[in-house]
Amino acid sequence: MKRIGILTSGGDCAGLNAAIRAVVHRAVGTYGWEVFGIRQATLGLMAQPPQAIALEIDKVDGLLVAGGTILGTTNKGDPFAFPMPDGTIRDRSEDIIAGYHQLGLDAMIGIGGDGSMAILRRLAQQGNLNLVAIPKTIDNDVGVTELSIGFDTAVSIATEALDRLHFTAASHSRVMILEVMGRDAGHIAISAGIAGGADVILVPEIPYTVERVCYTIKERQEQGKNYSLVVVSEAVRTETGVCVMSTDRLGQCRYGGIGQYLADEICTRIGAETRVTVLGHVQRGGTPSPLERVIASAFGVAAVDLIAEAQYDRMVTWQKRQVVSVPIPEAIAQYRAVNPHGTLVKTARGLGICLGDEQRVGSRE
Ligand code: F6P
User: Fold this and answer.
1) Considering 12, 114, 139, 152, which one is annotated as catalytic?
2) Is 186 in the pocket of ligand 1 (CB under 6 A)?
3) Ligand 1 pocket, residue 255 CB under 6 Å
4) Half-sphere exposure of 179 (CA within 13 A, CB side)
5) Ligand 1: which residue has its CA nearest to atom 8?
6) Is residue 91 annotated as part of the catalytic site, yes or no?
7) Are 9 and 120 in contact (CB under 8 A)?
8) Ligand 1 centre from 183 Cα, in Å?
9) Rounded CA gap, 249 and 98, in Å?
10) From edge to edge, which strands make up the β-sheet containing 131-135?
11) Residue 322, strand partner residues
């Protein structure tokens, strides 16, 4: 008999609830353990008393298709340098470790991206906590896994947006620019761009010129195609290398605005009518795709099995159609950007999609 905890940390995404459901089914249904769902990531362990709910199988009914996370999450507040209400910064790591022991946990499953994973591992090392990790991030930039929870659904949503933009672009003879998330990696843009039949895809990993983008749009016009679809990753910089970000009143910086920059440049240079759609958090919400549900379920079951085998400090990953586990330090050490020479970039070029670089300037093949 074990008692395990589960928490979701970092930005939410589709598929988190499916993973929670799988953990409960495997841990309670197969092994007869107790599962505690910890509220609001490490904040739930920091609280006094710790904020957690007992999760039984009937509590996770219907969760397979539900977006978000029933446990809540946060992507703020490093517990090692935690901002206190009085404005001071405190190390709250020992409070979290105490919360884990107060709940009587034998092990904990942390679902998060590389940032959350680094924090959870540091806590586990400091407090001798038994940690198993599940990767989630719509950005899909965790190097050791081909898929993280959230990515496939985000790509589906961005693809659906392109499908819709296609018709309105054609009706009005416009250049439609779709700005997608992904932080510093262009995985959502390249996948959705190919799937949604974009004419131009701009990712942070491939330098571009506006001239090349305009050339493609003009070339299409000459071929009698009265509209174009451009997908751009939020972290793409301006042509002069300026990062387009804004800071909110809480002092948090976030990407946003590169789509409008491109729209203005394209309109100014070639007079095309442009419109911008910033997809934003729509990419994180809603019903998980079928593949998402499969991956999240497989990760949840495998994470519980790792605990059953007392294999801690490991993260489950998806590699070559199966779940395997790797040490967490290895998992967080490997960042995965879009490979400029990889299959998807080759595919896009092979389809005649402009990636904003100079490769096809002057050629009309
Ligand atoms: O890392 C996931 C992500 O959705 C990024 O793609 C995006 O840049 C960021 O989080 C947005 O964060 P927030 O939820 O704080 O606005």
Assistant:
1) 139
2) no
3) yes
4) 21
5) 183
6) no
7) yes
8) 7
9) 33
10) 52-54, 34-38, 3-8, 107-112, 131-135, 314-319, 322-327
11) 319
Determine contact, residues 298/21, Cβ cutoff 8 Å.
no
Beta strands at 274-278 and 175-180: parallel, antiparallel or unpaired: parallel
Distance 11 CA to ligand 1 centre (A): 6
Q: Report d(CA 102, CA 338) in Å as an integer.
A: 43
Round to whole Å and give the CA distance between 356 and 206. Answer: 8
- Residue 323: which residues within 8 A CB-CB, separation 6 or more? 298, 299, 302, 316, 317
Structure tokens at 190: 């390249």
User: Which of 254, 279, 338 for a ligand 1 pocket mutation test, highest count of atoms within 8 Å of Cβ?
Assistant: 254
Strand pairing partners for 169?
none
Please say whether the dihedral angle defined by the alpha carbons of residues 66, 113, 138 and 241, taken in this order, is positive or negative: positive
Q: Is the CB of 138 under 6 A from ligand 1?
A: yes
Tell me the two tokens of residue 293. Answer: 């549900």
Complete DSSP assignment for 302-330: HHHHHHHTT--SEEEEEETTEEEEEEHHH
Q: What is the chain's pLDDT, residue by residue, as a tens digit (365 residues)? A: 999 999 999 999 999 999 999 999 999 999 999 999 999 999 999 999 999 999 999 999 999 999 999 999 999 889 999 999 999 999 999 999 999 999 999 999 999 999 999 999 999 999 999 999 999 999 999 999 999 999 999 999 999 999 999 999 999 999 999 999 999 999 999 999 999 999 999 999 999 999 999 999 999 999 999 999 999 999 999 999 999 998 888 888 899 999 999 999 999 999 999 999 999 999 998 899 999 999 999 999 999 999 999 999 999 999 999 999 999 999 999 999 999 999 999 999 999 999 999 765 444 43
